[in-house]
Amino acid sequence: MTSRLLTTPLRQPRWWALLVIGLCIGHAAVAVTRLPPWGLVPVAAAWLGLGWLLRWGAPRHSRRPARVWPWSLLPIALWGLYVYLADSFGIVDLGAIFFHLQAGMSDHGGTDRLLAAVLYTLSMAALLVSFTWLVRRDHRWRLGERLLALVLLASNPLFYGMTQRGAAIVTDDGAWLDRRYVPPAIREAPDAPPNLLLLYLESIERTYADRERFGDAYAHLDAIGERGRVFEAVRQIENTGWTMAGMIASQCGTPLMPAGLLHDSQFEPLGRVVPGVDCLGDVLAGQGYRLAYLGGASKAFAGKGIFYEDHGFETVLGREELAPRLEDPDYVNNWGLYDDSLYDFTVEEIRRLEAEGDGPWGVVNLSLAGHAPNGYPSQACRERQGEFDGQDILYSVECSAWLARDLIERLDADGLLDNTLVAIASDHLTMRVSVWDELTRGERDNTFMLLGPGIATGTRTRRESSMVDLFPTLLEAMGFVIDGHRAGLGVSLLSPAPTLLESHGQADLAARMHEETALQQRLWEGLVPERREEEPAPQEQVVEAPEDATGEAPAEVQ
Predict the structure, then answer these.
(1) pTM higher than the cut 0.90
(2) Tell me, what's a Pfam family for it (predicted)?
(3) What is residue 460's three-state secondary structure?
(4) Average pLDDT estimate for 161-170
């Protein structure tokens, strides 16, 4: 008798429908908030309890079922897309989505997310079927369902972000950032310009340096920092939160504002990447530098190869060029080469450049070990650190830090870093990983440190700054004299000049970026329709309030 009472509800379709909906709501709550994974259970249980109390799907005064299609199906599906992105990346960045769709997503290494995408698709199908059944069977849901559709649309962060970006269409001032842009210009060069080794450590943010939360995962980078100068409080502003955006911000001094609808060939991949601005490669190539980029992943993904080839780099090597040179062709991961292999090829490339001896060189390198969600620790790390459980991102962080330290020590021992500035930076803050709750508990900042000739050892500089400030900082650290310590939107952190974040704060900067159109036009000059010059207004007009200036003389009234 008891077993019949227990199994009877499970034979009723409404309980299956309510269970599916409850589980989906519980998972969404866990994915987009700080609830622990087990929080799914009480959320789903609360939903089922409410369904039992209000007799959802079986009203006391039922009406004839209606074969209707709920208006909420599309809003629910869009919320499902947002939950998937939040669960995958932690922070949903519309700029990243737009850019990757346009720059190209072929040869990516995210195959480990394919199973998750399939499961999400099946779950969404079950949710939509369950919700349709509930609306058709319960007239109360039919009466309020259209209002629910509007609430779901209005509350979806995807649409919130789109409406923010749409503010640029109607804003009175879409050139606030562009007015602050300073084209990079070398006024004076040192007699013996140093070489440059710029190491991007994928997702290895400086937040990991907190030993109370993350132990010794960052210890090897701390050891490197003691040999040079460490910069703290390098924040992540909007449109700098993915690999290409982080590299462009730190090398071009500007956030990567995607071409979007400005691109004149909407259904073709970008043929050039930020062609309207000069970047680190352009400046150094103009000073006689021989430049090389090496990365373990495909250079075709997200336009990396196009960017470097278009901005002064003679040698651009990715998975396509480096994998055939491996002794073991099977020693690769989903994205490409492991970092121990990549760093071996980096040493070879620096040896080649040194042997040629025809002027200074610059090498930019992008690692993979720290890539979310779990990382790709090299075999060299496994031999040193022991077995990898496949989940612990701190294992991969320690691996990335140790490999970077080992590379610098190898190059230093061989005399390959004489008269060389070494810069180590994270490309961006990490996305959702196993220690996400700990990472997001407080303020976060990027890794940035310098070591080499002229750099004081054992020093720390804490300034509210962002990745755009790395560009002029690198130039000044190499001994170049630039206009007003500025390049792009960045300010050298070696100078007393205030940064954008110090002058305006992160919230104000984000609001301004949502309204910006002129800087976007500048970045994609040549790929966008010509800007139509407007007739000057006959009346007097204040271009910019004095308190809104950025270090230069106050704007005048025209």
Answers:
(1) no
(2) Sulfatase
(3) strand
(4) 49
